[in-house]
Design a protein that fits this description.
about 450 residues; alpha+beta; Barwin-like endoglucanases; Rossmann fold; 4 domains; seven-stranded mixed barrel; 11 helices; about 25% helix; elongated; ATP-grasp domain-containing protein; YheC/D
Length: about 450
């Protein structure tokens, strides 16, 4: 297999002919060949080869070829010579799966439109990349009516074959559990099209994956899925603080911080529509009756987790969002870290709940002084180890993870949550803009890896 970067041009001839410059013929090992199997995504066409005298790597596609495999545009692109049946693959063709309002031409993917535009803008320099929704797929003829980005930054629609790789950024946890989305994923897998970031994680699933892995279970606070009242009371007596949170929640919704102070009672912090709330209970029974009234007598779909006394800045707890990516060599890397400082009285560090964002260096220097850099280095190692463990135990492709990690005053590192589709709010910090661009580049590099469009030295 060889990989070559070339310039693709269109001609008006109706035949199925490709015109190939001399140097490109040699690189593709097509010298003397009369025919070539040309492939884009899932489409293939058998075309005649005509050499032309032109310096550099140039490929001219007659209109019959362009229509036959739906090549979206001219410009620089990779050619992958497979040396079997004289097959040459153009691409890669990468699809970004998302969803959004059907009525908006400017914001077809809602609040994710800006991120998707950044992906398409950067990706167009190395591949054919488009965004699409589940409604845009025609499974009968195996095509997608994709959203491409033009040079002025506006979307235009073009029908292309099924892609070489799908990056899943479907935004709704609820939608991903529907039969239609499950069938969509399975259809891609049956066609051997890599589909990465399969679905949102459920907290309880991640705890189950890691609890028997000796390499990482010491980083996970004690957690009980679907706890009984007796189990919650026992954890409170042993740890003084627990977090009670929904298995499938996000953005800090539905989370309670429960603390037990002997001779004083039970104190519960949580988020209401009107803001942060603090409620005191004189007995554990009164606390449990309130939780059961709000969330059902069986307390199903909830997790109770050991509370950790985190490092603080200005008297407010700090935790860290580690944004992880697979790179072009299929290795995990820490790409961005944001230190999240809880708002006064908040049960979580989420920005929407009054939290604020710092760089990890700012937070750790305040907490540990000169030792902060060493603590950060160890936290990065732990994050990579956690990502490798989750990937090892998970049955589907993962290319991106977000970890919420905490560090206590004894420098112990704890993992509270793992997210399969992490938000990108940390990259809004002025000092994390470079990391935001690196995140996009890592996504594209991993797509290149999964599509097998990578140079031999990178394989």
């Amino acid at each position: 297999m060889s990989l070559t970067f070339c310039n693709v041009h269109f001609t008006q001839q109706p035949q199925s002919i490709v015109y190939v410059s001399g140097s490109l013929l040699k690189k593709l090992k097509l010298s003397g060949k009369k025919k070539v199997n040309l492939r884009l995504g899932a489409d293939r066409i058998y075309a005649s080869v005509k050499p032309i005298r032109k310096p550099g790597n140039h490929l001219y596609l007659a209109s019959g070829v362009r229509r036959g495999i739906r090549v979206p545009k001219t410009g620089s692109i990779f050619l992958r010579s497979l040396n079997q049946n004289d097959e040459v693959q153009i691409g890669p063709l990468i699809g970004v799966l998302s969803d959004g309002p059907t009525s908006s031409a400017q914001q077809p993917f809602g609040s994710r439109t800006g991120f998707i535009k950044s992906l398409l803008r950067e990706g167009s320099r190395m591949c054919y990349i488009f965004a699409f929704t589940p409604r845009d797929i025609n499974w009968q003829d195996e095509t997608v009516n994709g959203f491409f980005l033009n040079e002025s930054g506006s979307f235009y629609r073009q029908r292309v074959p099924l892609p070489d790789v799908v990056y899943n950024r479907l935004p709704s946890r609820r939608a991903e559990t529907t039969t239609s989305i499950h069938q969509l994923r399975e259809r891609f897998i049956r066609r051997r099209i890599p589909f990465f970031n399969w679905s949102f994680f459920n907290k309880s699933d991640i705890y189950r994956l890691l609890e028997h892995d000796a390499a990482v279970n010491r980083y996970v606070p004690e957690s009980i899925i679907n706890p009984t009242g007796d189990q919650i009371k026992d954890m409170l007596e042993r740890h003084s603080i627990v977090y009670y949170k929904p298995s499938g929640g996000s953005l800090g919704n539905g989370i309670y911080r429960i603390s037990y102070v002997p001779q004083s009672g039970y104190f519960v912090r949580y988020r209401k529509k009107s803001g942060n709330a603090l409620q005191k209970f004189g007995s554990f029974g009164a606390l449990m009756r309130t939780l059961q009234r709000r969330h059902g007598h069986g307390l199903r779909s909830y997790v109770v987790q050991q509370g950790i006394r985190l490092i603080e800045v200005d008297g407010c707890p700090i935790d860290f969002r580690f944004h992880m990516h697979k790179n072009g060599r299929n290795q995990w890397a820490v790409v961005g870290i944001g230190a999240k400082k809880a708002g006064k009285g908040s049960v979580t560090t989420h920005i929407k709940n009054g939290g604020s964002l710092l760089t990890p260096q700012q937070a750790l220097t305040r907490a540990f002084g000169a030792k902060g850099e060493e603590v950060l280095r160890r936290a990065k190692q732990v994050a990579v180890t956690l990502a490798e463990s989750i990937e090892r135990h998970h049955e589907h492709l993962i290319g991106e993870l977000g970890f919420d990690l905490g560090i206590d005053k004894d420098e112990n590192i704890w993992m509270f949550e793992a997210n399969a589709k992490p938000g990108r709010s940390i990259f809004k910090h002025p000092q994390l803009k470079v990391e935001g661009r690196a995140s996009i580049q890592h996504i594209l590099d991993h797509c290149m890896y999964l599509s097998k469009f990578r140079r031999r030295e990178e394989a």
